[in-house]
Amino acid sequence: QVQLVESGGGLVQTGGSLRLSCAASGRTFSNYAFGWFRQAPGKEREFVVRISRSGIITYGADSVKGRFTINRDDAKNTVYLQMNSLKPEDTAVYYCAAARGAVNYDYWGQGTQVTVSS
Q1: CB 14 within 8 A of CB 86
Q2: What is the pLDDT of residues 36-52, one digit of tens each?
Q3: In angstroms, rounded to a whole number, what is the distance separating the alpha carbons of residues 22 and 2?
Q4: Which residues does 82 contact at the CB level (< 8 Å), separation at least 6?
């Protein structure tokens, strides 16, 4: 079992930055890949970005490329999502998820709200 707790969300103006954190506890952190997802009101959950166990990054949303960066600190059991140049359309609940395999995610956090004002 892996427990994931996101933090760092909040209200920010257009063009601002936020860094989300996802703290993991339970099983060995380094055995997992991690992804960030987001869900805006009335929309389906969207895959944002993933980092593999070896640090390979895969973006799911073209709209965040060049603005969002993911990294992991295995010593701190934490994954980060640095979000720069935020836009109102980035407003959503952001979720962290952990994957043992290549496709499916096995554990999810409770989410953290990000609101970007225009």
Answers
A1: yes
A2: 999 999 999 999 999 99
A3: 12
A4: 17, 19, 68, 69, 70, 71
Q: 116: closest CA among 84, 82, 91?
A: 91
pLDDT of 61 reads: 82
What secondary structure does DSSP assign to 35-91, as a single string?
A: EEEEE-TTS--EEEEEE-TT--EEES-GGGTTTEEEEEETTTTEEEEEE-S--GGG-
pLDDT tens-place string over residues 1-33: 899 999 999 999 999 999 999 999 977 899 999
Interacting residues of 114 by C-beta distance below 8 A, sequence separation 6+:
9, 10, 12, 18, 20, 38, 83, 86, 90, 91, 92, 93, 94
Element (H, E) at 23: strand 18-26
- Alpha carbons 94 and 45: distance in angstroms, whole number: 9
Residues in a beta bridge with 93: 39, 113
AA letter at 72:
R
